[in-house]
Amino acid sequence: MSDVREATATLRSERPAVDDDLRAVLDVDAAKETWTFDDIPIDSGTFGELVSRGIVEKVDGEYRVADRDAVQAALDGEEGQPTADDSSPSLEFDLDLPPQRVGVALAAALAFVVAVRLVAFPSVFRSEHIVLLGNDPYYYRYLLLQSLEEGASVTSLPDGVLVGEPLLTATLLAVTKLLGGTVEVADLVLAWYPVVAGLVTAALVYVLAVQVTDDRRVGVASVVMLAVTPVHAYRTAVGFADHHAFDYVWLAITAVAAVALLQRTSTGKESERGMLTPWTLALGGIVAVGVAGQVLAWNAGPLLLLPLALYGVVRATAAVDAGASPLTDLPLVGAVGLGGVLAIVVHTTLDWQELYVVSTPLLLAAGLGVVLVVGEGARRYGLSARVTTGLVAAAGAVVFVVAYTVVPEFGAEFSQELGRLVNAGSVEGIAETASLFGTQYGTIVGPFFFFGLSLFFALPYLAWCLAAGWSQNRPIWQFAGSYGGVFFLLALLQVRFAGQLALFSSVFAGVAVVHLSAVTGATVRPAMVADDGRDSWSERAPELPAFSMPTRDTVVAVGLIVLLVGGLGAVISPARTTQLMVSDESYEAATFMDEYATEEGWEYPQNYVFSEWGDSRMYNAIVSGESRSYGYAQSNYGDFLTSPNASDWYQRLDGRTGFVVVDRHSGLSDTDEEVMYNRLHGWGNETGHYRAVWASEDGSMKVFTLVPGAAVTGSIEPNATVTATTTVEVGGEEVRYRQAVTADAAGNYSVRVPYPGTYEIGGTEVTVSEEAVESGGIVQA
Q: What is the pTM (predicted TM-score) of this model?
């Protein structure tokens, strides 16, 4: 390939809007042997680029194209002819890939994404175990290991997996089997899948940002902003094998494919649009797969399709206001409906999800279709945008009421989900059900824990995108604004949707970074917010400089802007991930209980670990593998700690609990000495059934086993108090145990003790054997 052709191809890849300028220069060059700058209809910035790259050369004070054939070949996308200067033949494809410098910047940004998500690496990969982060990942570990144990396949999942997140489990199972199918491989897959999902979504965010803004600088900035968005960072961190990371991938695929479809059906010159072309069919198919994936990956996946409903209303009314037909969006509607068909086929074939869940895309497609048809009717009859809005809203409401009435399961699930969404505050201490601005995290500072400052910089651009998209009838801006706006509203209700919001807020935060950098003079404004406001898809976009090597001043200016927008997130992201790590003490306690249960030959539920519900799945995954639910711990552990009745709780726990774990809890530090929390932190003093078997070095965490306890009986003065005391060794430390009882009116007493050893009781030494403790035997004082 000639140097001129290569330079032209590079310029086109960096600035797709330069094609019209190149053709204009070629026309002038064909008419004149040499010419001046005044003869060509392009701006000085573009002209300078052509000269500096050698595409245009200076001859006797005037200019000419250095190689007309090479420039034309680059414009036509033809294969370059080998020249004597070529070291080897080359074959080029007309792919819109980033140029080399942008590619390096993008690769660095993606590497940064991965680096932030590996903060927990030492905590996850321990000596003998892969210790996942948080609580819920152990639920998916249980489902995966159960599927492996039962010899399940992607097409024959266990019954307990079919509803909820079947696509996630099937994917994890397929990858695990592909790599060997062992428990060790399953743990590795669970540990690494979130990082892979985070990397994929970051790459798709780059594509989405470039689609929306037509600016690769914004694309790279968006990836950097996503890298340091705390809610995305910790939910895609190594070891956090929750369903969220998987959901992000399907959401991003759907959004990118939908925008690409809109670019070919609803934007650009009418002569270049096409409803049914190979590209639209392919992109429609990807949208359909993405939509089906969302509802099969999560039983609340239909909520992730809500932005399409808002987009349909905005699109129809904006098109009518601009005098354009909204029916150009029918391919998108068809793709959504096809996604519903695919989901129903999978449901019918594999029994995945409930029918009302997988049929939601069909209902949505019907609603969108009605909205677009009503909008088209309003346009043809010359109705105003305000009247159209009312008609469109009414049409959508009719479709919803029909679906609510005809499909009772849909109505019941909708009511249930709506109740969950509007429920203020967290549900039973589950953090993700709290509001983004709720009191649990702080009304003002709460969003900082999930977004740093980037959300506050992104929101004005999000609002502008939605408003400008409507007023200027730009479907892609309407689409991006609708997704960002709906997920922001959902996050206001429950913070579990903050991760979905992060995919879109990072795009607008990227716009903020580039725009603010332009304000400092370090670069030029992104096309999206350029002064002339031209449509970068249908007209020549505002001229942008090439993505060239920056100067020192530019690096400093842009670096300060990046720190301003994303710096707080860069600090909070690793801190939030650290909060999810299993502490060294908890891991040591878990491995101790595992070894203890193995030595004793305990099987589930003999080795069940009763603990704070947030740690329950982790402990039981390591000790017994039974980490499906934390329900029992969530319902009972709090009452257990605050109860003064040790014997009653022993009766309730005996037979279904092997270990009890207590940790320091600031909320219980001022409670009465009689409650179980204080008794157990006192090594089981004043209890007869709880034997301490392990303690952390600082004594803040203790592990107990349940034993019948030996009953030491004797006689003293009537109604007198007798105290049994002994010294026992726990974790290499000698501790003092005591138990006091009051004799009856005849002077008889019975004191139950959980430790074997020699006790001092009323001045008398009594030896209690291990057998007596384990069998509940009676020892005479």
A: 0.83
